[in-house]
Every structure is written in C-alpha cells, then in structure tokens.
Amino acid sequence: MIDVIQDGDHGVDDALATLLLAAHPDVRIAAVGSVHGNTGAESAAANAIQVLDVAGLTAVPVAVGARRPLAQPVHLSTLVHGEDGLGGAAQTPDRRPVDASAAEQLVRLARAEPGRYTLVATGPLTNVALALLLEPALPRLLDRIVVMGGALDVPGNITPVAEANIAHDPEAADLVLTCGADVTLVPLDTTMATWLGRTELARIAAASDPRARFATRILAHYLDFYAAHGRDGCPLHDESAAALTVSPGLGRYVEVPLRVELRGADTRGMLVADRRVGATPDTPPVRVATGADRDGVVDLLLAGLLDRDAP
Ligand code: BDR
Ligand code: CA
Question: Boundaries of each Inosine/uridine-preferring nucleoside hydrolase domain copy (predicted)?
Fold first, then answer.
C-alpha cells in the first residue's frame, strides 16, 4: 500500500491527479495540503475538498497552505485554470479545511509514522520547504517525494527556461531538490509528451460516472486554453507525477544533481543539472523522469475516471 500525502495548487490537472490516486487499489490518500499557484491557497483547498468528495473520500483532511512564495510576490496561473482554479466549475464544499497549515500537517504525519508516507507535490514547493524548515529530519521521515515540476531539456512554460511549479517559488524548489530525500522529479520533458487526446476525451465526455462528468466540466476551460494555442487535447502534468508514483516502471529516468537558478534576470527558476563527467557535486542526485509510457499513464487516469465496466 502507498500512503500518499498530496500537496497541490488544486487546478485542473492536480484534481485529475487526485482522482487517479484515489481510484488506485494500491493507494491510500492520507491527507492533502493546498498551496498558491494555479489559484489562491484557499480556493485550492476548497477544490481539493471538492475533488476528494467526488472520489468518495469525504474523510480525507485538507489543510490550507502557503498563500505566497518564500521570496517573491505571488503570481497565480488563472489564465490556464480559470479564476477558481477549476475552469469555473468550482463549488463551495460542504466541509472545511482542518485548522493546521499544510506544512504543519505534513510534519505531524511524517513524525507520527516515519517512513510511511509518499509525498506527491503537484504545485509550487512552498509548503514542503516550510516543512523542511520546521523539521529538518523530514527527508528521512518520508518514504519518498514525487514532484511535478521543472524543464530539463525542453522549454519552460512560464519563461523560456522555467516551469510553473518551480518558477512560482524558486527558493522553495531549490531547498526541496537539494534536501537529500528520495526525490523523483517529473518535469515537462515527460509531461508535455504525455498528451491526452481527442479519443480519450470523447470517452470521458460520454461516460456517466460522476468522476468523468466532473472531469469533463473542469477540463472545458483548460482545453480551450490549449486550443487557443493550436493544440488539440492537453498535457498530463500532475497526472503523470501521480501515475509514476503508483507505477514507477512507466517512466524512464536519469539521476542527476539539480539546483534551481535564483539570481538570473532571464534564468530565475531554471533547473541547472550537473552532468559533468567526474565532478563531485555537493548536492545529492535527484531521479528525473525523462519520459514515460504515455498509454500506461492514460490508462491509469482513465481508471480514475471511468467505471470499471465502461466501454
Ligand atoms: C504545473 O503547473 C500548474 O499549472 C499545473 O497544475 C502543473 O502542476 C505544470 O507546469
Ligand atoms: Ca499543479
């Protein structure tokens, strides 16, 4: 069993990642934390509650996390995910987030059962960095951390070189990627090549499963965004991170020490991979997914949205 804590900026793909994890027979979602990013931290928490409730996980606690990055003004990706983070489909949930912050919740769970939890981070890494500051032993207390973020050998999506989850809090990302935990990074190199196409979207749209109907509602605005950029369908960013959490064998990986560029006027938020031969970098390597079995990821997502007996 994989005991997962998801920390996300619950926009469209974070929500679909939650549904993928929720449906997987080997996963138990223990808690969710929200963070600024696609929308504000409060809206992201409300969205996380909404999607957990759609999945039938009405008892999973959700904690509101950081409302802003560590060292720069907040910037929300509402153009891609809509003002509410779910393309206009967000509803006020019946239950409230818990009183603790997302970082406090993460530290409390990790301390209570060392080695038990896998952290799946699908948003900016502010909460995880705060948790590392609260509990420096966190890397040893977590089983592993899977992060969606970064761009290694492909362009960024916020700047020419920076991906959103890293660019929205570069200082936090640098802390997490160098913390010494067992970290798997799932960057745009993998997620932009893991595309949800017209055929699968039609299947989801035709399904009567409440999870598929919810997915169709939240995907409309997101798909319009990609259509406006001449793309049919959408990438599976956070869903790929969720899929590689439950089935690491779907990915191809390199192990490389990473830093985040923090000072460049044009390069802030860029990943710097130390691929020198024979160098002895002072930061431990991170496992970076350079690609994934696209059909395998899509199958896991569809299993989270469609009734097992659906055609
Ligand atoms: C990442 O940024 C967010 O907009 C998505 O939810 C995903 O986590 C992709 O760059
Ligand atoms: Ca996200």
Answer: 4-298
Reported pTM = 0.97
**Taking each helix axis from N to C terminus, what angle separates 237-246 and 12-23, rounded to the nearest 10 degrees?**
20
Q: What was the ipTM of the complex prediction?
A: 0.99
The best mutation among 18, 126, 148, 271 to test binding of ligand 1, ranked by most ligand atoms within 8 Å of the C-beta, falls on 148
| Closest to 257 (Cα-Cα) out of 288, 229, 230, 234 | 288
User: pLDDT tens digit string along 190-204?
Assistant: 999 999 999 999 999
Residue 237 alpha carbon to ligand 2 centre in Å = 8
Direct distance between the N- and C-terminal alpha carbons of the chain, in angstroms, rounded to an integer: 28
What spacing in Å lies between the alpha carbon of 311 and ligand 1's midpoint?
A: 30
Whether the Cβ atoms of residue 301 and residue 196 lie closer than 8 Å to each other: yes
CA atoms within 13 A on the CB side of 260: 26
Q: What tens digit of pLDDT does each residue of 43-74 get?
A: 999 999 999 999 999 999 999 999 999 999 99
